[in-house]
Amino acid sequence: MKKGIILSCIIASLTLFADLYTKFLIIKNVERAESITVIPGFLNIVHVKNKGIAFGILNEEKHPLRPFLAGFSILALGVIIYLLLQNLNKLFETIIFSVILGSALGNLGERFFRGSVTDFIDMHIGKYHWPSYNLADAFLTISIGLLILKSLIRK
Predict the structure, then answer these.
(1) What percent of the chain is modeled with pLDDT above 90?
(2) Which of 99, 100, 119, 121 has CB 3.0 to 4.6 Å from 48, enough for a Cys bridge?
(3) Is 119 a catalytic residue?
(4) In Å, what is the CA distance from 80 to each residue of 8, 20, 69, 73?
(5) Are 132 and 120 in contact (CB under 8 A)?
(6) What is the pTM of this model?
(7) Residues 18, 105: contact at Cβ < 8 Å?
């Protein structure tokens, strides 16, 4: 159990650092609404402030669910910690829930201290764009996808 907690703290901290460091680089080096082409027709780096949740959901200023975001985020954080603690004896789950924890802390912390989350990855095919996102969103999506995949493989 102790090794699981140490491993979890290391993974969550590295995930949090990677997320916050990439956001810091964007804030310092990319102007708001600027777009830097990385792979033409597919990937840009942008600087967008997101007051909603992942991928720009609930980003509208007057959305009726916006006031509940902080409470929902804290509740979700509690669930993540609970699931992590329940799975410390399973390496795969410890890694996945630790990545999810670090990612959630990155976005929640930025939302709390800055009032919004910095998104900067703009994937698109031609003129059809996926909503911009950040490293924490990517880590969350991949981690949840791996959990779902593992649960399907078990059956």
Answers:
(1) 67
(2) 119
(3) yes
(4) 12, 19, 16, 10
(5) yes
(6) 0.87
(7) no
